[in-house]
Amino acid sequence: MKLLLIEDDPMLSSALCKALNVEGFVVHPALSGHAGIAALSSFKPEIVILDLGLPDIDGTEVLRRLRATHIDLPTIILTARHSIDDKVNALDVGADDYLEKPFDMAELFARLRVLARRLSTTKTNKICIKGVDLDVAAQTVHLDQQPLSLTRREYMVLKALMENAGRVQTKDMIESKLYGWGEEIGSNTIEVHISNLRKKLPSEFIRTIRGLGYTINNEQKSPSSPPSSN
């Protein structure tokens, strides 16, 4: 999942980027309000973390401009401003959540998972489809209740597909959830990840939609009707 981090403190920004990468986010850092606004169109984030105390333009104004063009883009305010007026103003302008500094990283991750669930077809941290159980919070996968060993990239591909079960995910959509801006990607990288996953998952769990991409069907087959006794 692509996340835009608008934070002017270089040390905090770097630490957050590393921690968010471990959590499976592809992060684009912006150290100013104008850089963040520019990244909205070039990076196309799915979630934004926004500081209010920026050096060039107040974060509230960044939020106003963001909402003018991206009305549904989930946005968390991460700020040292503690007054209730600042919090109410940010929420009224269009923030989805407000977290004060200093903060606990685990709480930030939990709030991000809440926003991520809004974008997916599942509404819990655990996604269970046909014997495959993926726990977003713990970042684990089980097959028939047995732990499944996946590389980080394989996990991220599977997560992207399972979170959007029933929807076709194109190669470009999957790549955008795995790799950062400007990161070199091999022409068959996604195909390799899919092939490796198929060796570890049930047959036909991941379906190829020719000319479009990949999908996971989350519908359970109805039991066959018993033969008629007549």
The largest pleated sheet is described as: 5 strands, parallel
Structural class: alpha/beta
- Find the count of extended strands (DSSP E, 2+ residues): 11
How much of the residues is beta strand, in percent?
15-25%
Instruction: Please tell me how large the radius of gyration is.
Output: 20 Å
Order of strands in the sheet with most strands: 2-1-3-4-5
Low-confidence stretches: 221-230
Number of helices: 8
Secondary-structure element order, as H and E? EHEHEHEHEHEEEEHHHEE
Mean pLDDT: 89
End-to-end distance, in Å?
Answer: 56 Å
Break the fold down into its secondary structure elements and pairings:
Elements: E1 2-6, H1 10-22, E2 26-30, H2 33-42, E3 47-50, H3 59-69, E4 75-79, H4 84-93, E5 97-100, H5 105-119, E6 126-129, E7 132-135, E8 140-143, E9 146-147, H6 152-163, H7 171-178, H8 189-200, E10 207-209, E11 213-215
Parallel strand pairs: 1-2, 1-3, 3-4, 4-5
Antiparallel strand pairs: 6-7, 7-8, 8-9, 10-11
Helix pairs in contact: 2-3, 6-8
Task: Give an overview of the whole structure.
This protein is of the alpha/beta class. 40% of the residues lie in helices and 19% in strands. The chain has eight helices and eleven strands. The protein has helices spanning 10-22, 33-42, 59-69, 84-93, 105-119, 152-163, 171-178, 189-200, and strands at residues 2-6, 26-30, 47-50, 75-79, 97-100, 126-129, 132-135, 140-143, 146-147, 207-209, 213-215. The protein has a five-stranded parallel β-sheet, with helices on both faces. A four-stranded antiparallel β-sheet has the order 6-7-8-9, with helices on one face. Strands 10-11 form a two-stranded antiparallel sheet. Helix 2 (33-42) runs parallel beside helix 3 and helix 6 packs across helix 8 (189-200). The longest helix is centred in the middle third of the chain and has 15 residues, at 105-119. The termini are far apart.
